[in-house]
Amino acid sequence: MGPRNDTIKNPLFKKGLKWYQRLGYLNANIFWFFGFARFVFLIAPILYPMFGAQIYTANIQEAASYAIPHFIMSIVLSYYLYAKVRWNFFSEIYEAIQSIFILPAIISVILSPRKPTFKVTPKGENLEEEFLSPFYKPVYILFNIILISFFFSFYRWVNYPDERGTVLVVLFWQIFDIFILGIGISVLRERPQRRKAFRIPAKDDVIVYTKSQVFSGKVKDISLTGIWVETDQDITDHLSEVRDHLIEFVIMDVRGLPFILKGRVVNSNSKNIRAQFEANTLEDYRKLTEVVYADSSRWEIFREEREMNPIQTTIFLTKIFIENFKKAYKMATTEFINEIKGLTQKFMLKLNKKIRRELNETV
Predict the structure, then answer these.
(1) Rounded distance, CA 157 to CA 251, Å?
(2) Which of 81, 102, 217, 295 has a Cα at 20 to 30 A from 332?
(3) Strand (E) positions, 133-194?
């Protein structure tokens, strides 16, 4: 092992880089400071109703004239620039939730740049049971604090009529934060995921070979572990040769050369065959990976099928919130109460031991 290189590399002073490369690398580094802004955005509407802090010095008319048009135009501009690769509000959700966890890490790096380590998240896991992610706690606590501050805002609305314009702005702000964190709690509820690899939409032509029959069709989706084929012919009379049997799928690779994929059928009907691949050698896995991931047209299909405008995205996220929040919040509440009970029991045991020890010393 060679000597450890503890040099902290600043892209602005790194030799061999052009000016635009320096700016590009610097921007990539500075991006991670979003945690400060996002976290402030989450806690800011708490400060006014609960502590009277003036975080937004504007009345409802000024907010309607400046803040709301700015918010709407930022959504429109984001959709115009990134509609084909990103949905509206997903960056806000991702960065808002991540800011709660990344902020301590960023502060740690600032205080001790060489100390922190990076952990790679596990890939290809399959979840057999539904459970709540262990990262739920800070999101759950912050959600409830904002929810409590929401009722403080109503208190100010009733008791401070001259501040109602500001209170109304803060209320909308709180509703947006509650919505963001509510979705965060919903997605932290891990549901059963038995597939080890995600399916990718496809439209490839495929030839299916059984022991005595040949069918043509289209690939509907494919992954490293399996394939779904819709046949051109009705295969009802040949299901006995298909179901639970090892069959062959001939598909073209990125160079236009035929490649044979062997798979055992796990489900089939008159027009559909779903099979699990049986790749036995390293070369089989290499070729399978190439067939699944190397063709960029698959990602074009994926993108086309999933493009949504801001209104559609809002409806989609609202459905997620309605369908998942209640159960996720209930799970989080139960888990949090159990943790509090556990901590209380540990504290009482320690206190009891301490009292007994002091009594024994006294005697």
Answers:
(1) 66
(2) 102
(3) 189-190
pLDDT band at 2 (very low <50, low <70, confident <90, very high): very low
Q: Which pair of structure tokens corresponds to residue 115?
A: 């100390």
User: In the prediction, which pLDDT does 1 show?
Assistant: 42
Positions of E strands within the chain: 131-132, 189-190, 200-201, 205-209, 214-222, 226-231, 246-252, 258-268, 272-277
Measured CA to CA, the distance from residue 140 to residue 340 in angstroms comes to: 14
Domain with 209, as residue range(s), is 203-297
Residues 266, 341 share a domain: no
319 lies in a domain? Answer: yes
Are residue 338 and residue 356 in the same domain, yes or no? yes
Contacts of 291 (CB under 8 A, 6+ apart): 222, 251, 253, 254, 259, 261
- Domain stop point among 257, 275, 297: 297
pLDDT value for 149: 92
How far is the C-alpha of 85 from the C-alpha of 79, rounded, in Å?
A: 10
| Cα separation of the two ends of the chain | 61
Tell me whether residue 3 is in a domain: no
Residue 103 burial by Cβ neighbours in a 10 Å radius (0-12, 13-18, 19+): middle
* Mean pLDDT, the chain, whole residue set: 82
Kind plus residue range of the DSSP H or E element containing 51: helix 34-51
Residue 280 has pLDDT above 80, yes or no: no
Query: Has residue 108 been placed in a domain?
Result: yes
- Give the total number of structural domains in the chain: 2
* Cα 28 from Cα 26, distance rounded (Å): 5
Residue 302 lies in a domain: no
Closest CA to 130 of 194, 196, 197, 198: 194
Measured distance CA(12)–CA(46) in Å, rounded: 38
Domain boundary residue, one of 274, 297, 320: 297
Residue 329 backbone zone (phi > 0: left; psi -120 to 50: alpha; other: beta): alpha
Residue 228 phi/psi, 5-degree rounding, is: -120, 120
Phi/psi of residue 152, nearest 5 degrees? -65, -35
Query: Is residue 206 classed as helix, strand or coil in its secondary structure?
Result: strand
Three-class SS state of 263: strand
